[in-house]
User: What shape does this take?
Amino acid sequence: MVREIVKDVLVLGRHSEPCTKNDRQLFKDMEDTLAAHADGCVGIAANMIGVHKTALAAFIGDEILIMVNPVITDRSKQVYETEEGCLSLTGVRQTKRYEAITVEYRDKKFKLHKKTFRGFEAQIIQHEMDHFEGKII
Assistant: This one.
């Protein structure tokens, strides 16, 4: 189900809780919502649809990847400055991102994965994971 995008910074500023296997409908809703906004969005965090859980959906290549309870376990020393927008906010803001990150996460079936992401894909994941901590660019 396509969910409405939250734009209230007080709601977006809350910390997220870990997902459980009871959150599987959330993952489907995130896929549907991201697909519905594919023309102007490359990722969403669960709190962007009003659910304070640590899950994100991101376009990695041509596919939507669901990351459940992701944790960055390693990051490159290389950092770069960039501008980012957010579907929940208007305009763009300056931020710094690591060039590469290694992430441990579970997929929507709760299978454990560990993968290194670089460049724009790493940037997307870092942006969405900031939402888990209530950070808004």
